[in-house]
Design a protein that fits this description.
One of its GO terms (biological process) is signal transduction. The protein is of the alpha+beta class. It has 32 helices and 32 strands.
Length: 922
C-alpha cells in the first residue's frame, strides 16, 4: 500500500515557494533596473535637449553681441573723427559687411540729429541745411528732425529710406530718445521698411553718437551734444535661422515670439524641422526668455519625433535581457540546491562576475585613449589620470595636482578662449562645456586636444564644488582634416586653388557683387601648343611648364585676385572690382609672360595662350552662365590662332548653340544615312586621260538642306566624329573604286582626304586604313591619301611610320593645298610624298597675276626635282589650262572639266570624255 509522505510534500511545496519568491524578486529587481535605465536614458536625452536650448539662447545673444561690436566700431569712427563723409562711411562699413558674411544683416547706417534752432547740430553737413530739408518730411511745428543720412549697402530697399525723418514715427522716436537718454544700445521693432518689404520682419539696433571731446567738459547726464545714431537693421527670421541652425540639426523645433506683442501673434521665427502634429505630443518642451537689448523674446522649444527616436534604450534592454536570464538562473540554482552552502557559492560566483564586468568596463574606458581629470574646486586641486600625463610624454611625478599644470600647457593663442570658458563654469554660468585647443608636450611639440567637462556637484549658492572631464588627443584628426582640405581644394601640381575652391570663392565674390554693385572679371585661358611639349618632351616636363605658368600667372595679379588651375592646361583668373582698362592690362601682361621661354630640364619651350574674358553681371546673371560664356570667348581666341584675348559677345552664345545643335545632328547623320559621296575627276593634262577621282563628302540635312563641308568638317574634328565619318568615307570610296576598276579602268584610283585627327586616333587604336585594305583583299594602289601641311608640321615618329606603311602597301600620298601653310623643302624631302596639289587660290589668278604664275611654276619645278607629280586644283577656264600645260603640270581638276558628280553621273561623264578625247588619250 502506497504511503503519502507529508514531510516530503511540505519540503517540495516549500522549495517551489522559495524558488518562486526568488524568481519573482529577481524579475521585480530586473523590472526596476530596466525602468531605471530607461529613465536614465530619457534623462540624458532631456539634458541634451536642455543644453541644446541653452546653447541656442547663447548663440542668439552671441550674434547680438557681434552686431553690438559692429555698431561699436562704427560709433568709434565718429567719435575719433572730426567729420565722417559719405565715402568714408561707405568704405568703413563695407569692411564690416564683407567680414561678417551674414545674410541677415541688411543695413548699417547713420541717423543725423538736427535741431533747427541750434546751428551747431547741422554745421558739419556736406550740403546746406536748406537743400537737405527739401528731402526731409517734417511738420511746421517740429524743431527736431532725424533723417537717415547714410545707409549701406546701397540697394532699392535702402535707397527708399535714405533721408527719411525717423522722428516722424512715434515709436521709433521713442526708441531713439531712449538710446540717447540712457547712452545705450536699444532695439526697435520699427524698421522703416515695413511697407517696402512686407514679407520680411526687420528689427533695428540703435546706438547714440556724441561729440565726446566736448561732452567730457559738460556735467554728467547732459545730452545737448548729440551727433546722431548709428543703426544696424537685420532680418529677424534669417538672423534666428542662422543662430539656431546648429541646434535644429539635432532635430529640435523652435518658435520665437516677441513676448510683449499681443496674444495669438505670428512667431518671429518658425522652424522647418518636422514636428509632432500637436505640441502636447512632444516629450521634451522648454520656454526660455531671451533678453535682447531691452526687448524680450520667448524661445519655445520642443523635441521632434526624430530627436525622441534617438533615445538610447540599449543599456535598459540589455539590463532587461540579462535580468531575465539571471532570474531564470537563480531560480534553477534555488530549485536544485536549497542548501545554504550552495546558495553562498552561487552568490559568490555572481559577485565575481559582477566584479569582472566592472574591471572590463574600467579597462574599456582606459582603452578609449582619453585622459581623465577630477577637479576639486574649493581645494584648487586637480587629480590627473596616468593616461592624461602620458598623453603629453610626462611621468606621474612630473605633474602636480594643481590647475597650473594644465593652464601653463595651453597654447598662448588658445589660452584666452579656453580660460574664458572655464571661468564661466567656475562662476556658475554653465554646467558643461566642450572645446578644442592645443597643449604643449614634454618635447616642446603641440597636440590638439578635445576637452569635455561637466559640473558634478554644486554648493548651496550654485557654485561648482567638483568638475569632472576627459581630454582626448585629436592631433591626427586635425592633420587628416588639413590633408583632406588640401586634396579637396588645392591643385597638387601647381599649389593653386583647384576647380572646387575657385568656384567656392567665385560664389562668395558674386554675392558681394550683388550686395555692393561692383563688377568681377573672369579670364579663362588655355595654353597653345602645350600638347607639343607633352608629346615631344614627356609629361614630366609638361608638368614643369605648368608649374612655371601658374607662378607667372600669380605674379600678374594683386592680392585681391585669384588664380586657379581647372585641369590640364586650363587656368582661370578672377579680378575683383574690375574696370575695362585694368582687365585689358592684366590680359596683356598674361599674354606677355606666357610668351616668354619656359626652362625645362634640358631645353627651353615656347607656348602662348588663348584668353577669354567675361564680366559679371554684364555678360551673365549667374555663375554657370558666366563660366560658359568665358569658355566661348576663349574658344573664339583659339579660332583666331591663339596668343590673343577676346571679350564675350551675345553672338558667341548663338554660335555655340548652333555648334551644339550641329554636333547633335552630325551624330544623327552618321547613323541616318544622310551622307553621300561625290567624285571630281582628275585629268592627266598631258594625255587627257582620266584615271583618278577625288572623293568629296556631302551632307544632305533633312531640315537645313545641303550643308557645305567647310561648316561641319572642323566641328567633326573637334568632337572626334571625324573618325567614324572618315571610316565610312574610306569604305564607301574603296568599294566604289573596286567597281570602277572592273567596269572602267583596271588602274583607277580614288583620292581620299584624311584629317590629322584621324592619324592621331588611329595610332591610339592601332587600327588604320592599310589594315582594312589587307583584311578586305583590296589593292593599295586603289587609294591616294590626301594629307595637309599641318600634319607634317606636327609630325612625330608615328606619322612617319604610317606614311612609310602607305608606301610599302602601294598607297600613294598627296600633299593637299600646298603653298597655303608653312611647308618647307625639308618637310618634302623628309617624307614619302607622291603628289603635290597646288591650291586653287594660286590657280585662280593665272593669266592675270605674274606673281601667282611665278609661284605655280616654282612649285611645279620644285616638285619635279624631288620626284613628285603635281595636281592643280580649281581649273575653271582654257587660259589656266593652257598655262599649266606649258609649265609641265601633270594633273588638274576643276569645274572646267567637271564639277563633283554622283557615281552614276561620273561614269556617264567619263564615257563621254573618252569618246571626245579618244585620239588624245591614245
Amino acid at each position: 500500500m502506497f504511503r503519502f509522505d507529508m514531510a516530503a510534500l511540505r519540503q517540495l511545496l516549500m522549495s517551489r515557494w522559495i524558488v518562486g519568491m526568488i524568481v519573482a524578486g529577481a524579475l521585480l529587481t530586473t523590472l526596476l533596473l530596466w525602468m531605471s535605465e530607461r529613465h536614465h536614458a530619457e534623462e540624458l536625452q532631456s539634458i541634451l535637449f536642455n543644453q541644446s536650448v541653452v546653447m541656442g539662447v547663447e548663440e542668439i545673444q552671441h550674434q547680438v553681441d557681434a552686431y553690438r561690436q559692429i555698431l561699436k566700431g562704427v560709433e568709434q569712427l565718429y567719435t575719433s573723427s572730426e567729420h565722417v563723409s559719405m565715402d568714408e562711411f561707405r568704405l568703413y562699413v563695407e569692411d564690416f559687411i564683407e567680414r561678417s558674411q551674414d545674410d541677415s544683416l541688411s543695413a548699417i547706417g547713420f541717423i543725423k540729429y538736427i535741431h533747427l534752432l541750434k546751428p551747431e547740430t547741422f554745421a558739419d553737413l556736406d550740403i546746406p541745411i536748406q537743400q537737405l530739408l527739401k528731402h526731409v518730411e517734417y511738420g511746421p511745428d517740429d524743431n527736431e528732425v532725424a533723417p537717415v543720412l547714410y545707409v549701406e549697402p546701397r540697394n532699392d530697399t535702402n535707397n527708399e529710406i535714405l533721408l527719411k525723418n525717423t522722428f516722424s514715427h512715434a515709436q521709433l522716436r521713442t526708441d531713439l530718445l531712449a538710446a540717447r537718454d540712457g547712452d545705450r544700445l536699444v532695439m526697435s521693432r520699427h524698421s522703416m521698411v515695413e511697407e517696402i518689404a512686407p514679407l520680411h520682419k526687420h528689427y533695428v539696433l540703435h546706438v547714440p553718437v556724441y561729440d565726446r571731446k566736448a561732452l567730457d567738459s559738460l556735467p554728467q547726464g547732459q545730452r545737448q551734444l548729440l551727433n546722431g545714431w548709428v543703426f544696424l537693421r537685420f532680418d529677424v527670421a534669417s538672423f534666428l535661422h542662422a543662430a539656431l541652425r546648429s541646434q535644429e540639426q539635432r532635430q529640435l523645433h523652435f518658435d520665437v515670439f516677441d513676448k510683449i506683442a499681443e496674444q495669438g501673434q505670428v512667431p518671429l521665427y518658425h522652424s522647418e524641422a518636422e514636428s509632432h502634429l500637436h505640441d502636447l505630443q512632444a516629450r521634451y518642451t522648454m520656454n526660455h526668455t531671451v533678453n535682447v537689448s531691452g526687448q524680450t523674446w520667448l524661445l519655445s522649444a520642443r523635441s521632434t519625433p526624430a530627436f525622441e527616436a534617438a533615445i538610447d534604450y540599449g543599456q535598459a534592454n540589455r539590463v532587461g535581457v540579462w535580468g531575465v536570464l539571471l532570474s531564470a538562473l537563480l531560480g534553477g540554482i534555488a530549485y536544485f540546491a536549497m542548501m545554504r552552502s550552495h546558495t553562498q557559492l552561487a552568490l559568490e560566483k555572481f559577485s565575481q562576475e559582477v566584479s569582472s564586468n566592472e574591471q572590463r568596463w574600467m579597462l574599456a574606458l582606459e582603452s578609449t585613449g582619453d585622459g581623465l581629470w577630477d577637479w576639486y574646486v574649493p581645494e584648487s586641486r586637480i587629480v590627473y589620470s596616468d593616461r592624461w600625463k602620458s598623453m603629453f610624454g610626462l611621468l606621474p611625478q612630473e605633474v602636480d595636482d594643481v590647475p597650473d599644470s594644465w593652464h601653463d600647457r595651453i597654447h598662448p593663442d588658445d589660452r584666452p578662449a579656453a580660460m574664458a570658458v572655464l571661468q564661466q563654469v567656475l562662476d556658475g554660468g554653465r554646467d558643461h562645456y566642450a572645446m578644442e585647443y592645443r597643449m604643449a608636450c614634454k618635447d616642446g611639440s603641440w597636440k590638439w586636444v578635445f576637452d569635455r567637462g561637466m559640473v558634478f556637484k554644486r554648493d548651496a549658492q550654485g557654485k561648482p564644488l567638483r568638475v569632472l572631464g576627459t581630454l582626448a588627443d585629436i592631433s591626427k584628426i586635425k592633420q587628416s582634416e588639413e590633408v583632406i582640405w588640401q586634396y579637396a581644394n588645392v591643385d597638387t601640381l601647381t599649389g593653386l586653388p583647384n576647380r572646387r575652391l575657385f568656384f567656392d570663392r567665385l560664389d562668395r565674390e558674386l554675392r558681394m557683387v550683388r550686395r555692393n554693385s561692383h563688377k568681377v572679371a573672369i579670364i579663362f585661358l588655355d595654353l597653345d601648343r602645350f600638347k607639343e611639349v607633352n608629346d615631344s618632351q614627356g609629361h614630366d616636363q609638361g608638368d614643369r611648364l605648368l608649374q612655371q605658368a601658374g607662378q607667372r600667372l600669380t605674379e600678374c595679379i594683386d592680392e585681391s585676385g585669384v588664380v586657379a588651375r581647372l585641369g590640364g592646361d586650363e587656368f582661370v583668373l578672377m579680378l575683383s572690382d574690375a574696370h575695362a582698362n585694368y582687365v585689358e592690362d592684366i590680359a596683356q601682361k598674361v599674354l606677355g609672360r606666357l610668351a616668354e621661354s619656359f626652362k625645362l630640364e634640358h631645353t627651353h619651350a615656347y607656348v602662348s595662350a588663348s584668353l577669354g574674358i567675361a564680366i559679371f553681371p554684364d555678360d551673365a546673371a549667374n555663375k554657370d552662365d558666366l563660366m560658359k560664356h568665358v569658355d566661348q570667348a576663349m574658344y573664339a581666341s583659339k579660332q583666331k590662332g591663339g596668343n590673343c584675348f577676346t571679350y564675350f559677345t551675345p553672338r558667341m552664345q548663338e554660335h555655340a548653340e548652333l555648334r551644339m545643335q550641329l554636333s547633335h545632328d552630325l551624330r544623327v547623320a552618321i547613323n541616318g544615312q544622310q551622307f553621300y559621296l561625290e567624285y571630281q575627276p582628275v585629268v592627266n593634262l598631258q594625255t587627257n586621260a582620266v584615271h583618278k577621282a577625288e572623293a568629296l563628302i556631302r551632307w544632305q540635312h533633312p531640315v537645313r538642306g545641303m550643308i557645305p563641308p567647310m561648316e561641319f568638317i572642323g566641328l567633326a574634328e573637334d568632337t572626334l566624329l571625324i573618325v567614324p565619318i572618315g571610316e565610312w568615307v574610306f569604305k564607301t570610296a574603296i568599294e566604289q573604286c573596286r567597281q570602277w576598276r572592273e567596269s572602267l579602268d583596271a588602274k583607277f584610283q580614288v583620292a581620299i582626304n584624311k584629317s590629322p585627327v584621324q592619324f592621331a586616333i588611329e595610332h591610339k587604336r592601332h587600327y588604320d586604313w592599310v589594315k582594312q585594305m589587307l583584311d578586305s583583299g583590296s589593292d593599295g594602289s586603289m587609294v591616294v591619301v590626301e594629307i595637309t601641311e599641318r600634319l607634317l608640321l606636327d609630325a612625330n615618329s608615328q606619322v612617319s611610320e604610317r606614311l612609310a606603311q602607305y608606301g610599302q602597301a602601294g598607297v600613294q600620298v598627296a600633299l593637299d593645298d600646298f603653298g597655303t601653310g608653312y611647308s618647307a623643302l625639308s618637310y618634302l624631302k623628309k617624307f614619302d610624298i607622291d603628289y603635290v596639289k597646288i591650291d586653287r587660290s594660286f590657280v585662280r589668278e593665272l593669266g592675270t597675276s605674274n606673281q601667282d604664275e611665278a609661284l605655280c611654276r616654282a612649285i611645279i619645278m620644285m616638285a619635279h626635282s624631288l620626284g613628285m607629280q603635281v595636281v592643280a586644283e580649281g581649273i575653271e577656264n582654257q587660259r589656266q589650262l593652257k598655262l599649266l600645260r606649258e609649265m609641265g603640270c601633270d594633273f588638274g581638276q576643276g569645274y572646267y572639266f567637271s564639277r563633283p558628280l554622283r557615281p552614276d553621273a561620273l561614269m556617264t561623264w567619263m564615257q563621254a570624255w573618252q569618246q571626245e578625247h579618244m585620239v588624245l588619250s591614245r
